Amino acid sequence: MKTRVLVVEDEPGLGDGLIRVLEEEGYAPRLAEDGASAQALATEHDPELVILDLNIPPPTGLELLRRWRAKGRQMPVLILTARDRLEDRVAGLDLGADDYLTKPFSFGELLARVRTLLRRGGHNLVTRLEAGPVRMDRAAQRVEVAGTPVRLPSKEFALLEYLLLRKGEVVSRADISEHVWDANFDSMSNLVDVTVYRLRKRLEQAGSGSLIHTIKGTGYRLEEAAS
Fold it and tell me: Order of strands, edge to edge, in the sheet holding 212-215?
């Protein structure tokens, strides 16, 4: 039986795109374009996972999440937020959301988050990641090296987040391109290598030591501690 997914998104192009991608991956998605429809479909469809845009016609995404959790609904919820709406992201996590993605995002990254949430059943979001002196607060989108804040461009932040989540593992350029850009990105271009180089240089200049290592012919690995 296909996994039931409720998509709550009021941007027609994005909502339709999410439905198409989920169907192609073998899920059974339903789309709600406002809070009232989402509330009805959540009862009728009994979703096993919800992808929830917070900025929708009322009731808002935060209100829906509050109601579901108050009623004991424990399906994993992946919230979608604008990059500059930190307070909404924090509020969503406080209300019981399981993970979040900031817009714009790649469908590849969204599908990876969906698989992870379904596998673990939600409610285990790791909001703080670290390796050596590097600390990341995912909810606040803040990075520190040895206690000093380091500002990262959005792609470098997404790259560091992915490497921290896969700490100790070798990740290929194709893996990185799918999760940081999207599945259609040309992984043979040098943009991945350039972004890794810039991130590594920025972190090392801040005092991280050598954490990101190139694995010749394969990809990259982020180590637990600097070498």
Answer: 170-172, 219-222, 212-215
